[in-house]
Amino acid sequence: MDMKKKIMNFLPAQRLFSFFSSDIAVDLGTANTVIYVRGKGIVLNEPSVVAVRANTNEVLAAGTKAKEMLGKTPESIVACRPLRDGVIANFELTESMIRHFIRKVHDNRRTLVSPRMVVGVPSGITQVEKRAVIESAMQAGAREVYPIMEPMAAAIGAGLNVQEPIGSMIVDIGGGTTEVAVITLKDVVFCQSIRVGGDEMDRAIVQYVKRKYNLLIGERTAEIIKMTIGSALLTKEVEAMKIDVKGRDLITGVPKTIIMTAPEVHEALLETISNIVDVVRVALESTPPELSSDLVDRGIMMAGGGSLLKGLDKLLAKETGLPVTVAEDPLFCVVKGAGMVVDQLDVFKEVLMK
Predict the structure, then answer these.
(1) FRET partner for 13 with CA separation of 20 to 30 A, picked from 41, 86, 123, 256?
(2) Domain that holds residue 221
(3) Are residues 94 and 202 in the same domain?
């Protein structure tokens, strides 16, 4: 009897597939795609960008290399972000991107079975959008696909105790969506999702610069401005911050450089930040009183890249009167939580979307 037959006789049937495959968890984000492989941890963190040849859809690059091509490609090459506002905007390009990333981290030649995949999706996703995520993952090589709500995965990844009868609130600010959820006993009591996030902040900065300075800048430049001097609260230290901004003058049509200050960026971000604060207020108003009493002590946990905006945690604490904590490694909370679910599917099966 060869080794494969010995293994098959030794292992219970339900564990056979998981023995031969490295199951993976994916945070398929608007801005970044992060992949966790069971037994290895987080193995990939790349921008959700793909570059393909225009005529054949042949993938030329994905991730960081593709992001460097944004806005700089000839007509024969298309570089774009196939996900918008947390959902798939281009099915074929999303499938190509996922397949590229899976091949990068999961060598099918060394495994006998395709991997199972837990994928984080926005809580406000429609059935059609959810089906698109599942089908793109299956076409990319997954054996089984289990969608999980991103706020639930973020709560697990941030270390919140979602299994006990204790109320926990998570605010997950991603690139395309902001999601606020109150969780207890492995289920969501209340969840509110708005399609406002880091990308909306970038677009607000682009429009502000265009309106005030007649200067056209790209979203990559706006992102750098946001990360460098963007702030939700103005302090003396923040007010002194400045940055050189390069773009194209809309009147003369030639390149131009301006100096932008932190108060100007704050003004540009005000509306987006207000939307995030409002959705947190709505969640608090809709929380049952017994769970609200838990939140007084436990406070609010923030996750996602948007939570790294300077002063946003302090602003939320000021507006709600509750303690606010930014999770450790907020960018990886969703994939860490999804990874814990992959590792213990039997324990966490109730948290998966039906």
Answers:
(1) 41
(2) 198-265
(3) no
Beta strands, E only, 151-249:
168-173, 178-184, 187-194, 215-216, 242-249
User: What total number of domains does the chain contain?
Assistant: 3
Which CATH number characterizes residue 319's domain?
A: 3.30.420.40
**Could you report how far apart the first and last alpha carbons of the chain are, in Å?**
41
pLDDT value at residue 21? 59
pLDDT in tens, 101-138: 888 887 654 454 678 999 999 888 888 888 888 998 89
pLDDT in tens, 188-201: 999 999 999 999 99
Residue 243 covered by a domain: yes
Residue 242: strand pairing partners: 261
State both tokens at 70.
């944004």
Alpha-carbon distance of 214 to 194, in angstroms, equals 30
CB 158, CB 66: distance < 8 Å: no
d(CA 353, CA 137): 16
